[in-house]
Specification:
CATH class of the largest domain: Alpha Beta
CATH superfamily of the largest domain: Response regulator
Distance between the termini: 51 Å
Number of helices: 10
Strand order of the largest sheet: 2-1-3-4-5
Number of domains: 2
Shape: globular
């Protein structure tokens, strides 16, 4: 029996995953977590064959949680389940230690296949993501600008693009305002933008946020 921990901040998503897996004979959801901290605490206490992790949750960022999970339990495969397009995030999470990436828009059968694959020691990528990975390996020089960002810069960039102020980001990431301002400057430099409004436009254009995450006009450039 493959024991799974599902970490996602949306109860409806966790219920959906449980419903899908309840129809299998070899996979069971042992525990659930709604934050990265809860996921890490559970992984430290219990043994799981696969951790299903959302890349965007309150508190700890998904990439940060992924790295901490792999540090605590290097042999436990982590499967990323996300709303974000795999062509933008799959390569990044694989480099951070994930065993696979599945988009939430995928068919249930794909999620089941991915869990079985990573539980057996393999890696899972959809044909589309595998093609993207091959492309990036072959044409590294043609990477989009946001691929130059470090994981922390990428995290700050997404929070800024969602309308968070420097003060709010500092509080959420437990960093100083000065440190976040430094990351903001690096992000602006690497993306070739000079305002938060331009950053939001870049993030939207490149599929890093969806239209529902566009911040209100009065929160931009705070």
């Amino acid at each position: 029996m493959i024991r799974v921990l599902v970490a996602d901040d949306h109860p409806i998503v966790r219920e959906g995953v449980k419903q899908i897996l309840s129809e299998t004979e070899d996979i069971i959801v042992s525990d659930e977590a709604s934050t990265g901290k809860e996921a890490l605490d559970l992984v430290l206490k219990n043994a799981y064959d696969v951790v299903i992790l959302d890349i965007s949750m309150p508190g700890r960022d998904g990439l940060e949680t992924l790295k901490e999970l792999k540090s605590a339990r290097p042999k436990t495969p982590v499967l990323i389940l996300s709303i974000y397009p795999e062509e933008h995030y799959a390569v990044r999470v694989l480099r951070a230690g994930a065993a696979g990436y599945v988009a939430k828009a995928s068919a249930p059968d794909e999620l089941i296949a991915a869990i079985r694959k990573v539980a057996s020691g393999g890696r899972y990528l959809s044909p589309k993501a595998a093609e993207r990975l091959t492309y990036e390996l072959d044409r590294d020089f043609s990477k989009p600008l946001h691929e130059q960002l470090s994981d922390r810069e990428h995290q700050v960039m997404r929070l800024m693009a969602s309308g968070k102020s420097i003060k709010e980001i500092a509080a959420e990431l437990c960093l100083s305002i000065k440190t976040v301002s430094t990351y903001r400057g690096r992000v602006f430099e690497k993306l070739g933008v000079s305002t938060n409004a331009a950053l939001v436009l870049y993030a939207l254009k490149n599929g890093l946020i969806d239209e529902g995450q566009i911040p209100p006009a009065d929160t931009v450039d705070r």
